[in-house]
What does this fold into?
Amino acid sequence: MKKRYILQHVMALIFTRSPHKLFNYKQISKQIGIVKPEEMLQVVEILYDLADENFITEINRGRYRYNDKGIILSGRFIRRRNGNNYFLPDDSTPRIAVSLHCSFRALDGDLVKIRLLTKRTGPSPEGEVIEILHRKEQRLTGTLCITKGLAFLITESKTLENNVFIRSNRLHGGRDGDKVLVRIISWNEDQDNPSGEILEVLGKAGEIQAEMKAILLEYGLPYQYPPHIAKRVDRISSAISENEIINRRDFRGIKTFTIDPAEAKDFDDALSARRLDNGNWEVGVHIADVTYYVKPGSAIDREAASRGMSIYMPNQTVPMLPERLCNQICSLQPDADKLCFSVIFELDNRARISNMDVCRTVIRSNRRFSYEEVQCILEIGNGDYKDEIIALNQMARLLRKKRFEQGAVCFNHGQARLDSHKLIEEFMLLANQSVAKLVTYMPKEGKRKRPFIYRVHSSPKKEKLDKLCDLIYYYLPEINKKQLKDSRNLNHLLENITDDSLRGALELLSIRHMHKAKYSTCNTGHYGLALDCYSHFTSPIRRYPDMLVHRLLAHYLAGGAYVRRAKYEAACRHCSEKEVIIASAERDSVNYMQIEHMKGKEGEVFPGIVVNVKSWGLYVELIDLKCGGLIPVRSLGDEYFDYNEEQLNLTGRRTKRKFVLGDLVTVRLEQIDQVQKELYFSLIGVRSQKES
It folds into this structure.
């Protein structure tokens, strides 16, 4: 059915792109590439259907032309502040552009009907909203402005440019200059602005706490834990019974420690290490056993599932679990018995695994380290547990080397990476991979594979990869272009670029060409890590998928029966969607703090790097401050600049000056857009990667 609908959609596009031409079934089939008689018959049937819907009209026997009335579709309307609105059909066929004057006052997420329009310009289909079937509730944040008795929300929404009118009886205590949360009540065709009411006053605009709340609420995210959930947590006992300890492997006598950021409060992973009689090392990756305390379907579990994961903002953390759980009961604090779910490895001196066990354990951490403390031990060769830490680091280096030889992608743009960071990263990756392998290769129940939650990352589409290779070759013509498509060669290439600015820009560019990783019960492998199977097991305090992995793992290890895949696939979709939303909110919060830091610096000069090139200007990242903004093309010089999308460059027609990725620039801060949270710069000087 879906294949037929796609064929119908393609046929409809042929008519809309050539509205004055006549087509018969043979001409349509030829354009689509259909040669089989049975498929041609389907083309004929669809022509009849389109004629019945008045989308096309039969002009003479068997020859049809587009009908200006157009075809009607239903789906979701997606509104954007910049006017690039579009419509998503219910059947997941390609999006359809909807211009601002054709939007019929539809708001972001509304269920609408559209009519396809006759194409005049451009390759993409266009439509107009003809009916709003269902309004999605719209909640927006912004600054309340009251002047001459009229109140408006000055919105900073990414989906709506119009300010929201608020009647005096709907202000609910809001005052001029307040940061507020508003619900849109209506937006009729005869109104220039939507009408709304204040739901919550968040504080004064410009106060950091109010601004952070606004960002969370704009994305529909919580900023505090419901009181009734917190009360339930108070009933959970932190005491561990002897019976529970008896049923677990006891690691309390083995040297164990945590390594985390200095400011961390929740310690959800620990490492143990001991030398075995045969010369190998036993390494334990111990993860807080959150699911022992959080039962499936409980109020705490439902709230954690809804949140999906913790939110990390510059001034605060919004935890997935109540603080008493994540910072006290489950946190692997030193000198306290703690319950864990652990992966125990036996590794030889080449970091090869000779034995592995996954089990529930009890541990007692001997020491809490910061990354900096461990780094100091690695550099001077002395300190607490130096033998274990140095041995773990040697094994981590071998594991890392092996990963990159297998094709794992390494991007470290803008990140200071200590060996202590890499040590923890390698053992967490190893545990995640090992857990996924264990379940994937368990004996099947008949022909069915056990449903599990994987972290999957698709390889880039061939077209995107080809485009990336062409672009890298433009900047580095000395390389072997054919070898670029192998991720191992891409890694080697990036590692050997001596120009830091160019390497950073190309890393960012490569990331943009990659798919986003997501959660799924369908194991398609992880391209970025070059692994056949991978999961998230090591952070159940801050990620709900890890909690589900723990439960499934315990279920299967206990000999549990097959579980319903659909339930877990729905959870995967939800968590993947939440991850995207949370990442956007975190990015906005960082952006806000960067804008605040730049206030008062207008007119100052900064060194920067060109990290992206668009037809409208150059995006730069400031080297010392790690924030960025736009140099508008109009400020590059008194001439017209041609944009090359394939090579990402701008070239002046008169001077032939060329601006490309990786250019080192000196810029002056000209303007701070407080509403859109954008920085605008002018160009003072440049050292180009490409001389014209």
The first strand starts at residue 56 and ends at 60. The mean pLDDT is 89. The chain has six domains: 1-66, 72-134, 138-205, 231-458+518-583, 462-514, 599-687.
